[in-house]
Amino acid sequence: MLWLARAPVPADYIRDVLGPLIVLGASLSVAFVVLTQEAVADIDPDERGLASGIFETANHLFGGAVGVALYATLLTAGHADGYRNAFLAGAALALAGLLPARMSRAQAQPR
Predict the structure, then answer these.
(1) pLDDT tens-digit profile of 9-51?
(2) 3-class state of residue 25 by DSSP
(3) Which of 26, 34, 49, 93 has the most CB atoms around it within 10 Å of its CB?
(4) In angstroms, rounded to a whole number, what is the distance separating the alpha carbons of residues 48 and 78?
(5) Helix (H) or strand (E) holding 30
(6) Which of 90, 54, 84 is nearest to 69 (CA)?
(7) Global pTM?
């Protein structure tokens, strides 16, 4: 996201956009599999379908609905650097998700 935020306006697709999109495509496909696995790892086998459904609902609700609303607001705010702000907000949201992830991981570790 930070790489995309650096793209000039107007951007050349091959030089400025293709590289970050390849990285996002490769990394996000792996990340979603790993995140889903981590979300259901400590759940009883009989409850994993339910846990996966809750995880996916939260993922689509907060990542899809709230994220798209935030990005669209930043894009249409009337500033010339709307795309840059939207990509920076996406990076900030990803970083903000690290804190609760680290906290939940620390709580799950046996002492």
Answers:
(1) 788 899 989 999 999 899 888 888 888 888 888 888 899 889 8
(2) helix
(3) 93
(4) 45
(5) helix 18-40
(6) 90
(7) 0.66
